[in-house]
Design goal:
233 residues; 2 domains; 5 helices; alpha+beta; six-stranded antiparallel beta sheet
Length: 233
């Protein structure tokens, strides 16, 4: 007599807070949404005392002008030099001078050794702007997973309302940041996919790059590490 079948474990996608990424906006399973800005950095220590005071004053003015919450995220990861090494290899293959080929090879080995010994980190800076219009009890939960309530809502309606509110906020923050010499840009849908892929797949993202066109995906970007359990016989 066959034993009762065992349900396969839930996909990794079921445990993520992200429902979808559309039109440069991340839609969450709670019915909320966020947009993400990426900024450059300013070396504060290299500024003169008067420039530091001006920068602090401008940053304080930025914070005081905000009528909505934001999240500042600083992400550090080991620098990926694979694309740079590929360019060096291409330059070496195209070089007809044998001495220059050897010099390029030595330089590539030097870069690899430098990165390996010094553990050079690449820092990225992000500003997250949230959108939320759901009130407690306004939507009925459809599922409870690890204490988190999942609600039923119209994804496209949330996306339209999120655009209306987030785009002016994006423009405001970008203009305020430009006053203190910081350039900011809104991450596109493709860039958001690559960012979250890198966050949720830190080990494989260095070897496996995300497809250029997000429309090519027919399955979730994050796959479960555990294979589905077959029925017990």
């Amino acid at each position: 007599m066959a034993a009762p079948s065992v349900q396969p474990p839930a996909s990794t996608q079921d445990h993520l807070d992200i429902l979808d990424i559309r039109d440069n906006i991340v839609i969450l399973k709670t019915g909320n949404a966020v947009s993400v800005l990426q900024t450059n950095a300013v070396n504060f220590d290299l500024l003169s005392e008067s420039e530091q005071d001006a920068l602090i004053f401008a940053y304080a003015s930025l914070l005081n002008s905000l009528s909505f919450p934001i999240q500042v995220v600083v992400r550090s990861k080991r620098m990926d030099i694979s694309s740079y090494l590929e360019k060096l290899e291409q330059a070496r293959e195209q070089q007809t001078n044998s001495r220059l080929q050897k010099q390029i090879t030595r330089y590539a080995e030097f870069v690899k050794d430098l990165i390996a010994k010094n553990n050079v980190l690449d820092k990225r800076f992000y500003i997250v702007i949230p959108f939320s219009e759901l009130k407690v009890g306004s939507l009925a939960p459809t599922q409870v997973l690890f204490g988190k309530k999942r609600v039923s809502f119209d994804k496209w309606a949330v996306l339209d309302r999120a655009k209306t509110q987030l785009i002016p906020k994006q423009d405001q923050i970008i203009k305020q940041l430009s006053r203190i010499g910081i350039k900011a840009k809104v991450l596109s849908t493709q860039e958001l996919v690559e960012l979250f892929y890198d966050i949720y797949n830190p080990n494989s993202s260095a070897e496996q790059k995300v497809s250029i066109n997000v429309q090519e995906y027919t399955s979730p970007v994050v796959e479960p590490a555990i294979e589905s359990t077959e029925e017990l016989r």
